[in-house]
Write a structure and sequence with these properties.
The protein is α+β, with helices and mostly antiparallel strands. It has two helices and seven strands; from the N terminus they run E-H-E-E-H-E-E-E-E. The protein has one domain (2-73): Roll (Ubiquitin-like (UB roll)). The longest helix is centred in the middle third of the chain and has 11 residues, at 28-38.
């Protein structure tokens, strides 16, 4: 699956996107676990960030398919 990182998530990972290997659907919780395995500092954003697929925010009950493109969107501020 393709993961897109925005704002602080991009600064933490050092990349704007990457491929995360997956052969089966993941729950949102399992997806976060997988991301944090690759980038432990993302743990600080887990409870405050939103995940989006196809421009729609994912509920915590969603399943993420291996072919999905998922955006990690941390909270932003400014004007």
């Amino acid at each position: 699956m393709t993961v897109l990182y925005f704002a602080h998530a991009r600064r933490i990972t050092g990349v704007s996107q990457e491929e995360i290997p997956a052969t089966a659907p993941l729950t949102v919780s399992a997806f976060w676990d997988r991301l944090i395995q690759h980038h432990p500092d993302l743990a600080a954003l887990r409870t405050s960030s939103r995940l989006a697929r196809d421009n729609d925010f994912l509920p915590s009950s969603a399943h993420i398919e291996p072919t999905d493109e998922i955006a990690v969107i941390p909270p932003v501020s400014g004007g």
